[in-house]
């Protein structure tokens, strides 16, 4: 029994790990670099990016610091990641006099900027409300208000958002008695997270992520970084799915094998068989004593 438990424990330990990895562009110089974390990494990691880990070619962990860009007080040009639109539909509700723009993604996406190109009419000023959509356990869909912005022919039609993670959302444009807007282009973007790390020339680095049980790492290199100094940029590149099954989230308890139904019924069956054999043997002995 002890041997079985040890084997099972080893299996559970090996099942812990990362679900994804991404390569880092090679650099031609040594020193501090800023790694631009791509949208494929962002949508497959925890929203806080606590599960990110950086490794070199020897599989040794490389410390880093996560930087969040400040678009309102930038000291350098702001870097955005494009977010690919997976499902997008436009519907006109003539009864309620509004236009609905519906967006859906397979996984929640970090959104910071939505830019629209409007072809017509020539003059317009419309209120627009953004709602996140969700489906409850009973199958009912509900909406939650997130943000209000405006379409204005006198300015750029840009919706600025504060780190919204959305996989299903709707924008409702209030047309009132005006002609609906003819939207010809929609662009979604996110503020690219940046990792500051001390990289070596021609070294191969890999970013691993996708383990829901990991907490944010605690490195001491933040005490030595000069954030005002300009640093070269490198990007995350190819996303790879690892052959590792992550453990369930902390809220989900892992059942031991003796708690599973098959073990319970097997134990009952074996117990019943042993009881039957013992009873048969006892009855046989009693008959021998009566015949003696």
Task: Please explain how this structure is put together.
The chain is α+β, with helices and mostly antiparallel strands. The chain has 2 domains: 18-73 and 194-241, no CATH class; 80-191, Jelly Rolls (Sandwich), CATH 2.60.120. It has 3 helices and 15 strands. It has helices at 2-15, 39-43, 261-291; strands at 20-24, 31-36, 53-55, 61-62, 65-67, 80-83, 87-93, 98-120, 125-135, 141-152, 157-174, 182-191, 194-199, 206-209, 233-241. The strands form 2 sheets. It has an 8-stranded mixed sheet, with no helix packed on it. Strands 6, 7, 8, 9, 10, 11 and 12 form a 7-stranded antiparallel sheet that branches. The longest helix is centred in the last third of the chain and has 31 residues, at 261-291.
The CATH topology of the largest domain is Jelly Rolls
The rough form would be described as: flat
CATH class of the largest domain: Mainly Beta
> Domains counted in the coordinates: how many?
2
For CATH, the homologous superfamily of the largest domain is named as Galactose-binding domain-like
Q: Count of helices?
A: 3
Give the amount of beta strand, in percent.
35-45%
What is the typical, i.e. mean, pLDDT? Answer: 86
Distance between the termini: 44 Å
Q: What is the radius of gyration computed over CA atoms, rounded to a whole number of angstroms?
A: 29 Å
Sequence of strands across the biggest β-sheet: 4-3-14-1-15-2-13-5
Helix content bin: 10-25%
**What oligomeric state do the depicted chains represent?**
single chain
In CATH, the architecture of the largest domain is Sandwich
